[in-house]
Specification:
Elements lengths: L1 E5 L2 E11 L2 E3 L10 H11 L3 E3 L7 H15 L9 E5 L10 H8 L7 E5 L6 H15 L4 E9 L17 E10 L6 E7 L7 E2 L11 H4 L3 E2 L5 E2 L5 E2 L1 H23 L8 E4 L4 H10 L10 H6 L6 H9 L7 E8 L3 E8 L4 E8 L8 H12 L8
Parallel strand pairs: 2-17, 5-6, 5-7, 14-15
Antiparallel strand pairs: 1-9, 2-8, 3-4, 7-8, 9-16, 10-13, 11-12, 15-16
Helix pairs in contact: 6-7
Length: about 375
C-alpha cells in the first residue's frame, strides 16, 4: 500500500464534458424479454440516462473540449502549462501518445512534457492526480494539465444487458499548479494484480491481437448475453466483493493517514459503478449520506475513470466545499483514494459536447491512411 502527502500543490479548476447524444434505459426495452426485470434493475441499480459518443468520435475529443473550456474559463496562459498528462484506457491509437496529439490541438508549447497513463480504468484519475502532485511537489513541473477520458459505452455489445446499459462516456480536465501556500493532499493507492482477469479486455493488445480468426466469434455468457473477444468482460459478483472490501478500507486508510475524520470531509466522490454499489459502499464505509450520492450514475451512467470527477462536478457545482475525498476501485484490480483541498478551485460543472458536423467516416480514414503510407496527399475526396 502507498500512502503519500503533498503540501505545495493546488487544484485550480476542473470541468467535465459528456456527449450531447444520450440514451434512456426506457428506450431500450426491446432488449429485455422481461419488463419486470427491467423495472427491478432500474430500482436496484439506479439505471436512467447515459451519454454516449457518436460514431467517429472518441473520448479524446471530449478531453480536448474539456481542456479548451477550462483554459478559457481560468484565463490560463497556455505557454505556462509545462506538463500534459492523459489518463485513459481508451486511447485513440496503439503506440502513440494522446497527450502529444492533444498538445498540438490545444496549441500548447513544444516545451510542454506530454505523456499518457493507461491500464487502471476506474482508478486512473486518483493515480493521475498522484503523479501530477508528485511532479509539481518535486519541482519538475509548475503547471500541469491532467486529462481523463472514458468511452465506456464502446466496451461491450449493446445487446449485453449485464454491462452495456451501465456505461456512459465522459472527458475531464484538471489544472494543477505549484503554490507556496500549504495545501495538504493525501493519497492511498493499492493493487491486487492476481485478480486482473476479473475486469479485462482479452483481445486488442500485443498478447492477443485482433485478427480474422476471431472477428466472427460471438460468445453467449451464462445469462445469454453476447460477448466478443475484444469486449470488456467483468466478473460482477467478484468485483462487488472487491469493492465492498477495499472501498471502506481505502477510506479508513487515507483518513487515518491525514488525521481527519468523516466530519472533516465536505463531499465523498465515489466511483459511480452503479447505484447499488455506491449505496452499499456508503453504508459499509460509514459515510454521511448527505455527503455522498449515487444520483450521478442515474444521470450519466458509469463513466469509468472519469466517474469520480463527473460525480464531483455534477453534485458540487455552485456549492461551497473545502476537503473532498475521491474514492475509486476497479481495473487492476486496484483501489485508490485521496483527500484534496478544493476550497478555491473552479468547478465548471458538466458540459455537453456538441456533435461535430464534419466527423471523418471510417472509409475516409482508410483512404487517408492508405495515401499517407503511399506518401500521397490526401484531399478528403
Amino acid at each position: 500500500m502507498t500512502l503519500s502527502k503533498f503540501n505545495n500543490v493546488k487544484i485550480s479548476g476542473t470541468i467535465t464534458v459528456v456527449p450531447e447524444n444520450h440514451i434512456n434505459i426506457d428506450d431500450e426495452i426491446k432488449f429485455y424479454k422481461d419488463e419486470k426485470k427491467l423495472a427491478r434493475n432500474k430500482k436496484i441499480l439506479g439505471l436512467g440516462t447515459r451519454h454516449v459518443l457518436p460514431e467517429g468520435c472518441t473520448c479524446m475529443d471530449l478531453c480536448e473540449e474539456a481542456a479548451k473550456i477550462l483554459i478559457k474559463d481560468l484565463n490560463v496562459n497556455k505557454d505556462e502549462i509545462d506538463t500534459l498528462i492523459v489518463v485513459s484506457i481508451n486511447h485513440d491509437y496503439i503506440g502513440n501518445s494522446d497527450a502529444c496529439i492533444l498538445q498540438d490541438k490545444l496549441r500548447l508549447s513544444e516545451e510542454c512534457a506530454c505523456f499518457d497513463m493507461s491500464g487502471l480504468g476506474c482508478t486512473d484519475v486518483v493515480y493521475g492526480l498522484w503523479v501530477a502532485h508528485s511532479l509539481i511537489q518535486s519541482g519538475a513541473s509548475k503547471k500541469c494539465l491532467l486529462l481523463e477520458g472514458s468511452s465506456s459505452s464502446l466496451i461491450s455489445d449493446i445487446r449485453n444487458r449485464n454491462s452495456n446499459m451501465l456505461f456512459g462516456d465522459a472527458g475531464s480536465a484538471i489544472l494543477l499548479e505549484r503554490t507556496e501556500n500549504e495545501t495538504p493532499a493525501y493519497f492511498h493507492l493499492m493493487s491486487r494484480g492476481k485478480d486482473w482477469k476479473k475486469i479485462t479486455t482479452p483481445a486488442g493488445g500485443f498478447r492477443f491481437p485482433i485478427k480474422k480468426d476471431i472477428i466472427d466469434i460471438e460468445v453467449l455468457d451464462a445469462e445469454g448475453n453476447i460477448v466478443h473477444l475484444w469486449d470488456s468482460i467483468m466478473r460482477g459478483t467478484d468485483i462487488f466483493s472487491f469493492a465492498m472490501e477495499m472501498a471502506p478500507k481505502t477510506v479508513d486508510r487515507v483518513l487515518e493517514y491525514s488525521n481527519k475524520t468523516r466530519d472533516d470531509i465536505d463531499f465523498f466522490a465515489i466511483h459511480q459503478a452503479n447505484g447499488q454499489i455506491v449505496r452499499t459502499v456508503i453504508n459499509h464505509a460509514g459515510l454521511p449520506k448527505d455527503k455522498a450520492s449515487s444520483e450521478t450514475f442515474t444521470k450519466y451512467g458509469n463513466c469509468g475513470g472519469t466517474s469520480v470527477l463527473v460525480n464531483y462536478c455534477d453534485q458540487m457545482k455552485n456549492k461551497s466545499c473545502k476537503e473532498i475525498m475521491l474514492v475509486s476501485f476497479g481495473v487492476g484490480l486496484s483501489a485508490a483514494s485521496c483527500i484534496v483541498n478544493l476550497q478555491d478551485a473552479y468547478n465548471g460543472g458538466v458540459s455537453l459536447f456538441k456533435t461535430p458536423e464534419n466527423i471523418q467516416s471510417r472509409d475516409e480514414q482508410i483512404k487517408e491512411w492508405v495515401k499517407f503510407i503511399k506518401r500521397e496527399e490526401y484531399k478528403g475526396e
